[in-house]
Write a structure and sequence with these properties.
Blueprint lengths: L2 H13 L1 E3 L1 H6 L3 E2 L1 E2 L17 E2 L10 E8 H4 L6 E7 L8 E6 L5 E11 L3 E4 L7 E4 L2 E6 L3 E6 L3 E3 L13 E4 L2 E4 L4 E11 L8 E5 L6 E5 L11 E6 L14 E4 L5 E7 L2 E6 L6 E7 L6 E7 L50 E2 L8
Parallel strand pairs: 8-16
Antiparallel strand pairs: 1-13, 2-8, 3-4, 5-6, 6-7, 7-8, 8-9, 10-11, 11-12, 12-16, 13-16, 14-15, 16-25, 17-18, 18-19, 19-20, 21-22, 22-23, 23-24
């Protein structure tokens, strides 16, 4: 991380208290409904065993779109929690990306605004799609489609109410007249690192964690719209126990995916699961396969995004929530899945990511 950004974080650390995720969950100011009413299952005959619906105002907003999901099982921590990423959709009044922290035992949740530190202790919104997130240890990886992966520390959730009775002006962000503001959010999480591709080409549309092998891996994948053209790639990157990616920046393996319009993927004990969308009106498909083997397709909700695996639920892929599609989206039809995931393409065919993980900000 550059000296300017590190200076910005140092100033924020001095002025704002860092709180653990458990505090954010306990202070949840919103309530999700367990097994709430939803049209997300569409024509599925067998419904999921469990789900949550965001409360009114979040469930029906057209400004914020939920994207990625990750959970405590990914992180390897015992305290149950889900994290869901959202991106700001309007072209005006950019507010960047946020993460919702949800306690599945109480249904309480709270939004955390993701911010980019600036020199002098200010910060701004992060204008990305946030199409996927992966929580590993104390690190949260957020997909930045064309740049790579942004890293955030769960040990650096900062409380905007530090030393005052309010959280600042809801219309402002950053430092104004010496005071800090974050669009009215109580909690912010500043970016602490960046893994960036050396050469433009690979896309990071979604991310996930695979804990089923000898070494834990971070999964990334590329969304392609189809119906023609080259299929997107999925790759797996080695993770260190510290939560950082391996300093080599090289992928362990990479494959062509078995279809277009894939919004998320995960692997477990050699089996791959791909979440494929059919737009805002039709049911998606859960594609299941192993390299070189036949593809099977299972019914999936309308508008599926990231899948994730809960510890103890290895016989079925669980999803933390289904994004609501506020408007119909007209897109080309989904092309049929291919017969296999394809031959390995080591390193995504472009060489390693740049540099060491920037989890160096202590």
């Amino acid at each position: 991380m550059s000296g300017k950004l590190r200076d910005g974080i140092d100033v924020l650390d001095r002025e704002l208290d860092a709180v653990p995720l458990r505090t954010v969950l306990d202070n949840g100011n919103r309530t999700a409904t367990r097994k709430g009413r939803t049209t997300a299952w569409g024509s599925m005959r067998t419904k999921p065993v469990d789900w949550f619906c965001f409360q009114s105002g979040d469930d029906d907003t057209t400004d914020w779109y939920p994207q990625g999901v990750t959970c405590a099982s990914d992180a390897g921590v015992a305290d149950p929690a889900f994290l869901v990423s959202w991106y700001w959709r309007p072209e005006e009044g950019e507010r960047g990306a946020r993460v919702s922290a949800l306690d599945p035992e109480t249904g309480k949740y709270q939004h955390i605004l993701l911010v980019k530190p600036e020199e002098g202790g200010s910060f701004g919104p992060i204008d990305i799609h946030a199409g996927g997130i992966a929580w590993y240890g104390t690190t949260l990886y957020v997909a930045d489609t064309v740049r790579g992966l942004r890293a955030f520390s769960l040990e650096r959730i900062l409380d905007m109410r530090t030393g005052r009775d309010d959280v600042g002006d809801k219309t402002k962000i950053g430092r104004h007249g010496g005071a800090l503001h974050a669009f009215g959010y109580r909690y912010i999480m500043p970016q602490t690192g960046m893994w960036q591709v050396e050469t433009r080409g690979p896309r990071f549309s979604f991310v996930a964690v695979d804990r089923s092998g000898e070494r834990d891996l971070l999964i990334s994948g590329e969304y392609t719209d189809g119906p023609g053209g080259e299929l997107g790639r999925v790759a797996r990157w080695p993770l260190a126990s510290s939560g950082a990616l391996d300093a080599s920046g090289a992928a362990v393996d990479a494959f062509r995916m078995p279809g277009h319009r894939i919004q998320g993927a995960l692997s477990h004990e050699g089996t791959w699961y791909f979440s494929q969308t059919a737009g805002a009106r039709g049911n998606g498909t859960l594609i299941v396969t192993r390299p070189g083997e036949k593809v099977t397709a299972r019914p999936y909700p309308v508008g599926p995004e990231d899948p994730h695996l809960l510890a103890g639920e290895e016989d079925g892929v669980e999803r933390g929530g289904v994004p609501r599609a506020p408007r119909p989206v007209r897109r080309p039809p989904v092309s049929p899945p291919g017969p296999r995931t394809g031959a390995p393409e080591q390193g995504l065919g472009t060489g390693p990511l740049t540099g060491a993980s920037e989890q160096v900000v202590q």
